[in-house]
Write a sequence for this structure.
């Protein structure tokens, strides 16, 4: 009789059938009548201005409807603030086709609109620009003197400036028994979801637009469009029921949305704009970075001094920042610390968050420095972590809401057979391969955003839940359905979660591993209110067996409310709705982070990663043959989709450590490997055994669910674990990512 | 403009397209079969993989006019009505996708690869599926799903 709990079960993705049959529709998959196709033209120069633009040859092509440039674009909002968005860094947001100025290579400078995609693409080659080029700088290493603290603004709340120094770092470092002083360098990376950025705008007339957009935030983009184009927000509906990956690139409204909407309003027609792969490298990126770490330990291996200095790039118009340097002190207690984070403004587009922004940058350096320190001291790298383990947050002295990192270390190490390894570098071999074992720690914030949820019990006694969030492949639809089913005492089959629509109640963008905690907790809060409403209505039924029963005296199970003591006495949801004259019963509530209570705690997910690599003795090619990640993230709602999140981000870890990098030509000021043939991400042949462990972690404080996010934590530890394994295999420390085989020759 | 008559998912279809229109764009824009995905338009990602007769091809590197008179199967034609192809079911069971965007290409490619009959081991399957990129990192699930179906097939 009792509904089996759905939370904690490995339910297959609810939208799975749509995804394997090709019926799942993404932003470019809506074929509407009279659709026009837009093709974007991008600047080939890096800095300067457009002196002249001739669109006549392009307009002469049969099928071309319009060419929009800064010269003839329609009038738009006047104030910079109207172009801002929920994820905009401090500064002045970039405005496409605003004027003749070129701020970065690849900046959109024109949109050709035609009756077919091929015509628009061809006509785009006929536009003649005269450019005036100015000197530029895109090289981070050349300009350490330009590094300055980042400006503060609205977005600083989620990415605070570096922590203040403690104690006397320089003195402590000078007196340390063992020290490490190392520099780390990271290349630029681009998100490259396989889905090209696309927007289909349906012109409904009367100032109304229906927009299918590739985004991580339907409401973020709805408000952006309304503000920029002077429309009432209620007349702008942004839909993103399926999103073909985004990894951060969809956190801000991208320029194809702006250009598509502009063309649709200008022409009063339905318009689609799809970017090509090269243009996908002009949407923002993970910034190049330079880091210096100095760690000192006493004779017993206890850390006494930690310094972490990072310099990262940003654009000339916005100060993009990441949380790079704060992590070591959330893990390891050291009385003397020095942290700094600075930006160098370059003539590039503003970077944008990319999976585990800052965390996977900083933790690579921190965990490689820890490995190096362990070898200096002559103890096992895991032993060094355990020696410096802290149950409380060393940076604040506050307790964690939960922290099962030690369980992660021990379970993963045991499963990996870590303790059997020969710690000496370069001595373990397998045929013609050098074998290396490395480990690292991961930590990531456990965010929760406010979210609003509407929950409805229908005439059939079923539950429909509404929220504006997207599901970018994370499993949000499935996970929310499970949470809602258990919250209302219904089987999963009786629950529908409707999402990906700006008309639904509020959700922030889907980022920071926060949506399960945000929308999930809001569902819990809303369900409690809805249950009370249902009970009250049930009690109003003549001769109701639930009369006078309080909430604690009843249970909600399988679509009925039953008395806890005498479960045969029950009223079904259907009966309740019938008593309500067949009208659905609904409620809408906001779920909020418990900000005041949680001020006394630090919230974080943790992980431990163990990696085996093989390095060819002659060619020095590197293969990750086996990797285990143990994760502590509170309650795991769906072990199947959560496992995919972790193993997927482990693939990202392999990619970051060994494969992916956007190469910037500092003389041309542009990225030169802007295609998937030359921007390397792992293929199937690069991926071997990946194992995922979820450590038991009960968290009664964090939120209504006791759950933290799993979207990013799987990536954080992996690059350092791989780099440490490469050292163990070869005896060489390569502190630059990605590690290329030639650096081992 | 050129008339092309071919069989798509078992149905005779005719489209009138310019000679430079790719098979991918003809399927998506003219036949409204949007299950086949565009990820690079350069033959580098595999998202646009379809079957021509039993052979896997990249529809972005194929002009529609080249397939006049031929038989094309897209992701929309893989299931038998409501009954999923065993590989489609295996993809769901093994959680062989996250965002789902590369999935149509992975499935068509895997069906073509199994038909080629060249891959014997897991390593060979991985190698011969390496033209299909998955950015979500669902690689392990994808290969697990293919291996499960491959074994069932070879036992028959």
């Amino acid at each position: 009789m009792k509904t089996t709990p759905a939370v904690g079960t490995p339910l297959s993705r609810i939208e799975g059938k749509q995804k394997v049959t090709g019926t799942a529709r993404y932003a470019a998959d809506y074929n509407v009548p009279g659709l026009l196709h837009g093709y974007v033209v991008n600047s080939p120069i890096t800095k300067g201005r457009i002196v002249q633009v001739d669109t006549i040859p392009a307009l002469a092509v049969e099928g071309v409807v319009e060419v929009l440039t800064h010269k003839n674009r329609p009038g738009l909002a006047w104030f910079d603030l109207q172009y801002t968005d929920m994820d905009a860094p401090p500064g002045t947001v970039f405005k496409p086709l605003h004027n003749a100025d070129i701020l970065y290579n690849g900046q959109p400078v024109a949109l050709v609109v035609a009756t077919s995609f091929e015509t628009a693409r061809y006509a785009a080659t006929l536009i003649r620009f005269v450019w005036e080029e100015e000197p530029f700088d895109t090289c981070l290493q050349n300009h350490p003197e330009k590094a300055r603290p980042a400006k503060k603004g609205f977005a600083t709340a989620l990415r605070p400036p570096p922590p203040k120094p403690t104690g006397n770092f320089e003195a402590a470092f000078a007196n340390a028994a063992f020290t490490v002083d190392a520099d780390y360098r990271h290349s630029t990376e681009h998100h490259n979801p396989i889905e090209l950025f696309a927007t289909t705008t349906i012109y409904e007339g009367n100032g109304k637009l229906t927009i299918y957009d590739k985004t991580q935030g339907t409401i973020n983009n709805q408000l952006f469009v309304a503000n920029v184009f002077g429309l009432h927000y209620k007349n702008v509906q942004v839909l993103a029921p399926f999103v073909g990956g985004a990894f951060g690139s969809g956190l801000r409204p991208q320029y194809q949305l702006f250009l598509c909407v502009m063309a649709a309003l200008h022409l009063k027609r339905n318009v689609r704009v799809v970017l090509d792969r090269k243009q996908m490298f002009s949407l923002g990126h993970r910034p190049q970075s330079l880091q210096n770490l100095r760690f000192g330990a006493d004779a017993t291996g206890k850390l006494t001094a930690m310094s972490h200095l990072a310099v990262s790039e940003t654009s000339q118009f916005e100060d993009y920042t990441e949380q790079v340097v704060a992590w070591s002190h959330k893990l390891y207690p050291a009385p003397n610390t020095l942290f700094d984070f600075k930006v160098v403004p370059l003539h590039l587009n503003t970077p944008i968050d990319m999976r585990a922004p800052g965390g996977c940058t900083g933790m690579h350096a921190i965990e490689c420095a820890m490995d190096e320190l362990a070898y200096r001291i002559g103890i096992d790298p895991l032993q060094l972590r355990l020696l410096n383990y802290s149950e409380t947050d060393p940076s604040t002295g506050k307790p964690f809401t939960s922290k099962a990192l030690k369980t992660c270390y021990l379970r993963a190490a045991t499963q990996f057979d870590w303790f059997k390894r020969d710690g000496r570098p370069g001595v373990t071999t397998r045929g013609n391969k050098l074998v290396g074992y490395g480990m690292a720690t991961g930590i990531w914030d456990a965010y929760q955003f406010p979210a609003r949820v509407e929950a409805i019990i229908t005439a059939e006694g079923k539950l429909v839940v509404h929220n504006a969030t997207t599901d970018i492949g994370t499993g949000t639809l499935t996970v929310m359905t499970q949470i809602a089913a258990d919250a209302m005492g219904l089987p999963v089959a009786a629950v529908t979660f409707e999402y990906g629509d700006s008309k639904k109640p509020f959700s922030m963008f889907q980022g920071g591993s926060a949506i399960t905690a945000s929308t999930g907790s809001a569902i819990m809060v809303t369900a409690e209110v809805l249950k009370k409403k249902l009970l009250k209505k049930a009690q109003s039924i003549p001769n109701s067996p639930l009369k006078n029963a309080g909430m604690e005296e009843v249970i909600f199970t399988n679509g009925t409310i039953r008395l806890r003591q005498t479960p045969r006495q029950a009223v079904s949801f259907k009966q309740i709705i019938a008593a309500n004259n067949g009208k659905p019963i609904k409620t809408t509530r906001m779920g909020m982070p418990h900000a005041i209570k949680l001020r006394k705690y630090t919230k974080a997910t943790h992980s431990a990663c163990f990696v085996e690599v093989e390095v060819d003795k002659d060619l020095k090619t590197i293969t990750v043959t086996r990797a285990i990640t143990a994760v502590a993230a509170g309650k795991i709602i769906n072990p199947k989709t959560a496992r995919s999140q972790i193993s997927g981000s482990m693939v990202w870890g392999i990619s970051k450590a060994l494969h992916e990098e956007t190469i910037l030509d500092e003389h041309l000021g542009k990225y030169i490997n802007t295609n998937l043939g030359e921007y390397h991400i792992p293929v199937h042949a690069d991926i071997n055994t990946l194992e995922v462990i979820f450590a038991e972690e009960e968290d009664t404080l964090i939120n209504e669910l006791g759950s933290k996010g799993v979207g990013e934590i799987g990536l954080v530890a992996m690059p350092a674990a791989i780099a440490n394994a490469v050292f163990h295999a070869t005896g060489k420390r390569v502190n630059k990512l990605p590690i290329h085989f030639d650096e081992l020759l | 403009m050129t008339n092309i008559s071919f069989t798509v998912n078992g149905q005779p279809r005719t489209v009138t397209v310019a000679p430079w229109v790719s098979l991918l764009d003809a399927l998506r824009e003219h036949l409204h079969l949007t299950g086949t995905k565009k990820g690079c338009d350069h033959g580098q990602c595999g998202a646009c993989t379809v079957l021509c007769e039993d052979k896997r091809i990249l529809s972005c590197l194929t002009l529609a006019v080249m397939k006049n008179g031929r038989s094309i199967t897209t992701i929309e034609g893989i299931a038998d009505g409501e009954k999923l192809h065993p590989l489609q079911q295996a993809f769901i069971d093994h959680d062989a996708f996250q965002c789902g965007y590369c999935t149509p290409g992975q499935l068509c490619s895997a069906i073509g690869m199994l038909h080629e009959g060249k891959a014997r081991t897991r390593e060979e399957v991985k190698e011969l599926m390496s033209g299909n990129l998955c950015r979500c990192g669902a690689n392990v699930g994808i290969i697990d799903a293919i291996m499960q179906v491959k074994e069932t097939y070879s036992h028959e």
